Each structure stands twice: as structure tokens, then as C-alpha cells.
Amino acid sequence: MKITMTLLCIWATLFLAGCDVKDPIYNTPHPDKGAIVITADWTRRGEGIAAPAEYITEAAGTSFTLHEPVAALTGLFVPGPTELLGYNPAAHVTVKDGIATVDNDPDNAGMQHPEPGVLLAGTTVADVVADDTTSVVLPMRQLFRKIESEVVVTEGDPRRITGIEARLLGVAASIDLRTGEVTGVAAIVPFPFVRLEGKLVGAVWVPGIIPGTAQRMAMTLTFSDGRTETVETDLSEMLKDFNADKLHPMRLTGDVYAPVNSETGGTIIGWTETSGGDVNAGME
Questions:
Q1: Same domain, 106 and 167
Q2: Are residues 178 and 233 located together in one domain of the fold?
């Protein structure tokens, strides 16, 4: 009997030793969720525009502030498709619910700021896999465009022009970060000009123009004798394709007559869009 029991114990020990019992093997410490690593692609920006040093990525209801082109998002994500929305913080721009809006200009009530920071944004979808890390490229594109203007004093004395006030009507204040489409109603942006030798030069940044709305430039010149003259011009034809190419500035040139005395009026003669075709706009 003792021999039989001993053999049974030996047999049981050998049987259990032969069983291949192992714990599950996982690739990560988070087997039920996945991680995301993004590569920010800043190539779709204009010449002279630096890649932002900081950007924000929104994913699954959380915002992450990142500083490196390749970065891992903090935290873990439920397996399945996760939308990523990326954009850089820009001066004088507020982002809410995927819509970026240029702030008002504190120096010009009712108008939007003429010099917001350049905004780039983009979206993609990460297919999160449990117990793994998903790497995706987040393509960023430039959403704001610059308008440069140069008015040459072709006749008269440019020193007689002591003040310039201008505003551009019919521009967009907001843009959808996901689609790149402008939103909202038409706004007004002050167009700051300075006198540089025999020229008046200025520039603004805007999200775009509102399609179907007239774009007009109103300029008021003040002369050394205190007299002022305001000229308003319809630029709609020149700006009709403005939203199609955000990477290249639009350049508008014009000419003005600065009278040498107070008896002769000063009139801006015309505008030319110099960055894409020779379109003239007569100014009355």
C-alpha cells in the first residue's frame, strides 16, 4: 500500500510539472488601452513663416500642449478611431470648439485685430490599438493670409500727407480649424499704413474674406493744412479667390496724388493686384 501511494504521488508530481501553465504576455503595461505618438508636419506654410515652437493637440476631450515635432500624448486611449485636432497658439486669436476667431483690436472698437499671429492647424484620425502604440502624422496647414499694400505718391509732395487711416471691409474673423472654411459674418479690419519716403505701406493678416460679400478699402488721408479726404474702393474682384491660396501674400499697389496746396484735391487713382494677374480697380 505504501509503495502504491508513493507511486501515485510521484505520478501526480510529474503530471503537474508537465503542464504548461503561463501568465498572459502583454506588450505594454496597459493591455486594455493604447498610446498615441504624433509627428507634426509643418510643411504647408508660407515662405518666411517659422514652424511654431509650441502647439496644442486635442484628443478624446483633452488638450495636450506639445513642444517637439514628434511627441507622445500623455495618457491612454480606448481602442478605436480617435480624432486629433492640432493648432498652434497664436497672438490675438481665440480657439473654441474647433473655431478660431481673431480678437477685437483694443485701439479700434468694433474692428478685428490687424496683426494676429499666424495660425496653422490640421486634423487626422488615430486608429488606437489595445496594448500597442499608434503613430500618426498630423498635417498642419496655414489658415491665415497676409495682405500687403503699397501706395506710391506719383505726383505732388508726399510730405503733405501727415496722417493715414484705412480699413478693409468684408473680411472673415473666424475659421473652422478642421475644414479651413471661413465662418461668421463679415467684419472690418483696420489697415495700418505708414509713410515711407514717397510711399504709403501697410499690411494685415486675416483668416480670409466672406464669399458673396463686397470687400471695400476705405482710406482717409490727412494733409498738412488739416484737410482730409476719404476714398473708398471696391476690391471684391481682386479678392474673389483670396481664400484659395493662404501660403502666398496678396500684394496690392496703388497710386495717389498729394496736392502741393490746399486748392487741389488729392485722389487715389487706382489699385493693382500684383501677385496674380494685372487687375486694375479705378477709384472715384
A1: no
A2: yes
Record the pTM. Answer: 0.83
Name the residue type at position 184. G
264 has pLDDT over 90: no
Element (H, E) at 96: strand 93-96
Q: What is the CATH number of the domain that holds 172?
A: 2.60.40
Q: Which domain covers residue 85, as residue numbers?
A: 34-142
What DSSP state is assigned to residue 263? T
- Decide: 144 and 118 in contact? Cβ < 8 Å: yes
In a domain, 86, yes or no: yes
Q: Report residue 184 as a C-alpha cell.
A: 461668421
For the ranges 1-15, 119-133, 154-168, the maximum mean pLDDT occurs at: 119-133
CB atoms within 10 A of CB 142: 20
Q: pLDDT digit string (tens) for 105-116?
A: 999 888 999 999
Residues 6 or more apart in contact with residue 162 via CB below 8 angstroms: 222, 223, 224
pLDDT digits 0-9 by tens, 188-209: 999 999 988 888 999 999 999 9
